[in-house]
Amino acid sequence: MPDHDRASSQAPGRSSCRSCWLAAPGLLWMGLFFLAPLGLVFAISFASRGTYGGIVWEFTAANYLDLLHPLYGKILGQSLWYASLTTAICFVLGFPLAYVIARSPARWQPVLLLLVMLPFWTNFLVRTYAWMILLRQDGLANRFLMGLGVVDAPLELLYTPTAVVIGLVYSYLPFMVLPLYVAVERLDPLLVEAAWDLYASRWSVFTRVVVPLTMPGIVGGCVLVFIPSIGAFITPDLLGGARSMMIGNLIQHEYLVVRDWPLGSAVSFVLMAIVMAAVVLYYRHADRTAEALEGR
Amino acid sequence: MRRGWAGLSVVSILVMVFLYGPILVLVLYSFNAAHLSMAWRGTTLKWYAALLHDDALLAATANSLLIALVSTFGAMCLGGLLALGMEQMPHRRQRMIEGGLVLPLVIPEVMMGVALMLFFVMLKLPLGILTVMLGHIVFNVPLVTIMIRTRLRKLDPALREAAADLGADSWQVFRYVTLPLLRPAIWGAVLVAFTVSLDDFLVTFFTAGPGATTLPLKVYSMIKSGVTPEINALSALLLLISMACVALSLHVQRREV
To answer: To probe the interface with B, which of A121, A131, A158, A246 has the most B CB atoms within 10 Å?
Structure first.
């Protein structure tokens, strides 16, 4: 019966789907090396720390309560602040670029998008290192500022929060441009023309026509920039100093330096909760947009 | 002339300069003869030559290539089969698996790194090149699955049905119809998985242990011990390799679409 496979595949209720077994090795792998390790981290976040850095399996919520300590609170707070600031700056820089690309001649659009994405596909360490060269005490940024006569002595730029935010914006700007481009591309230019013709000011064209109509792209871009920014490790590690630590550095510090695995695991799950909240926000919004479009 | 266009264009050009300026400066300074200062002291290739005589660096490159090859092969097998297997499942289960596959791509890489490290330590598996390979397969499987699935869904089902109607059994349909049509996506996925593995720092950082230094780990430790012209040269080479991989990936995927 050569038709057996096709017949069963077209009746999804029946369980005799022979090719479905092909999925098993991949799913097993992800279960074993992705879900199980995550579950382990979750379990350890409720365990206690042994005297020499090991784990004692006694249930406690102390690790999460420890995070309320002002020191950890400060790191959490400044991570949220850097990530939010990065998202805002990416929006301000990314929107004009996305708009210009979406309104360029059609054959130029893929090329311009590729130009925006290309830096993202290069090595992350290298991209961050490039900013270390620029922001060093005798780096080009300081030479430029001194040459212009803006400052007399070189500024401390590297190893500051400013450097961290510059690095984050640089790394994740492409994530903002892509969804914004898709949204602007779908925006009917006649609606913008109409607003101009009705004597809307530049600001109200933007806030009352462009922004509401490109909202899915704005939310998408913001979430896509915020998620990697809040979980950043390399950028604050290389460009930041001891006082501009972010959650990612705290996790690494607790695991590899202090060797307090339960506390490190608790921090990891707080980070994961923040990321998941952003993901849920994104899907909620996507659903609402879909509903609104269907309702039309 | 569209209103506000000039202002938007100027900002866009500045943003493009912001995106490419740092990379260009980095490449430019890899040819600078001066050792420590940013002042220009003439063009040289000596920093590139120095890289060739750095044995630790060459060993790290070999490790990176081996890890990328093995993890790409592993992820292609697991992810490719997963994509094919998912196709016949009920839609609800497909969506569930898809949602699960996005998870490794959105959770912070730091977290994936520490989770894998803890897991391997608990299993008493010594950290080394093997654990790095296992870890790289984990983040490459979702990438491969998603890329192949995207292509599978674009295929015209009539082609496979026609083959089946002409008497091909399910293996023949796969071998002579589906597989050739998937070829661009397969090569695209190979290149993406290879590049991502080659560039990965965080998962490697946590799962490598002292023995298995890869190229990004080596670059990291060089950067940490101070800015030198050799790093500029190495960085320029890495930029070139990444861009070549992207170009190649786009090229193979564009064909036959």
So the answer is: A121
Helical axes B5-29 vs A70-102, angle rounded to 10°: 120
The structural domains of chain A, ordered by start, are 66-295 (1.10.3720.10)
Query: Is the ipTM reported for this complex over the cut 0.95?
Result: no
Query: Residue B257: its chain A contacts at CB < 8 A?
Result: none
Contact B85 A26 (CB under 8 A): yes
Spatial distance between the Cα atoms of B7 and B49, rounded to a whole number of angstroms: 46
Average pLDDT on A50-60 reads 78
- The size of the A-B interface in CB pairs under 8 A is 234
Chain B residue closest in CA terms to A256: B206
Q: Report the CATH architecture of B51-254.
A: Orthogonal Bundle (1.10)
Contact A120, B19 (CB under 8 A): no
Q: How far does Cα B150 stand from its chain's mean position? A: 18
Q: Which residue is listed with tokens 């299993």?
A: B123
Average pLDDT, chain A: 87
CB contact under 8 A, B26 and A133: yes
Q: Do A118 and B137 touch (CB under 8 A)?
A: no
Whole-angstrom distance, CA of residue A34 vs CA of residue B140: 12
Sign of CA dihedral B156, B157, B160, B163: negative
